Every structure is written in structure tokens, then in C-alpha cells.
Amino acid sequence: MTLSRDSLYPQSRAWKRRHDESLIAIVFPYAAMMLAWSGDGLFMLIAPARFGSLVHDNLYLFPEVSPGDWGKKLGLRLIGIGLLAFDIRMIVRIAQRAKI
């Protein structure tokens, strides 16, 4: 008759559950931040006029973007590329630390 490890050490199952929950608590904020940064970066890259108008209408932090404002659109696209580069850099650093 063979005994499983869980039957010999009943506390190991509870420890594994707590360990998995703490791992999820660590991973979830990073995943949420990466999704937010990549989503914002793509939105700024694909539709800079809509993003600028959204920020203007909701927060009044950016002047309204009209169809002929190529400078504002270019600036927003550059910021979007920067956000995507930052997100990629963060993913690469996490992968290097995890040795994936």
C-alpha cells in the first residue's frame, strides 16, 4: 500500500493553496499594468486624435485635437511608441529574471 504525500502531510495542500494565491496576488498587478500600458500605447498609436480628444474632454489635460493638428498627433504617437517600448522592456526583464 502506498501513501500519497498529501495523506502523510495534510498541511502541504493548504500551504500549496496559500502559495498559489500569493503568487496570483503578485502576478495580477503586473499583468494588469502591462495590459493597461500596451492598450494605451496602441490606442495612442492607432487613433491619436481620438485619444487626445478623450483626454481633453474628460480631464482637460491636453488641448483638443482637430483633424489638421499633425504635430499633436505625432506627439501622441511618439508617446504611444514610448509606452509600448516600456511595456516590452518590462516583459523582457521579467522573462530574464524568470529564465524563460
Structure overview:
This protein has 100 residues and is mostly helical. The chain has a domain at 45-100. Helices cover 81% and strands 0% of the residues. It has 4 helices and no strands. The protein is elongated, with a radius of gyration of 23 Å. The chain starts with a helix and ends with a helix.
Short précis:
The chain has 100 residues and is mainly α. The protein has helices at 5-8, 11-46, 48-59, 70-98.
Helical content band: over 70%
- Pattern of helices and strands: HHHH
Mean pLDDT across all amino acids:
84
CA-based shape: elongated
Question: Which descriptors would you attach to this protein?
Answer:
100 residues; mainly alpha; 4 helices; elongated
Q: Topology, please?
A:
Elements: H1 5-8, H2 11-46, H3 48-59, H4 70-98
